[in-house]
Amino acid sequence: MTRTRTSPIASYFLSLVCFVLFASQLGAACSNAQRHDTIHASLVSVNAARDGFLAWDRRHQQTIIDRAASREDAKRELGDYRATQTQVTEWFAVVYQALATAATENDEPSLTAAVHAATDIVGKIADLIHLAGGA
Amino acid sequence: MSSEPESAVSRAKRYLAISGVALEAMQVIGEAIAGITSRGAANQIAEVMAVLAGIQALAHQIKDGMDGEISKEEIEKSVQELRAGIAATNAAIDAALEKRFPQG
Q1: ipTM exceeding the 0.90 mark
Q2: What is this structure's pTM?
């Protein structure tokens, strides 16, 4: 497997994926304390992914403006991107809802769903940044 | 075997320190230095600062936050922070757009 050069923000998300995958292993054997730790680790990871996305989001939009040839081009590209931005916001809302459910329930499915959602969104954000050409 | 089993939090912290953030941070710094020296790109420096700040924030969150209780309010606050962050970014970007391409 060849290693390609990744942007620092993409690398940051890779480290988050590692952490969330590890956190998902914590939930396998599930005492209440382990459940709490797993949910908390997932929340910390999702918040870190959120903060990473916010940092990248601003840079990405600024890049759109910097590269635009005209006001119309910039507005069109920003409009297109913000549709994705709205979608990402909804992804996060769904994950946070899953974490809230897991935090208030005490069953295995809600924990599994929350951890999977957390893992999934970190991967999705990393993919989004990668597809957009990094930072 | 006198030692107690390592807690999940301790393992998470250890894992993050050894194989997660540490290695990635080294990669980030290495790539950033390469980028700065080869291209002299100022935005590389800003990017690295942002990433390092993010890693530092993550480490602090784990250190300070893992032992606390998780409440529904805390999770809802996370969503609100996301929406507020996006609103602030969009406002700043709209202002930058007006500055670069003034209307009229």
Answers
A1: no
A2: 0.67
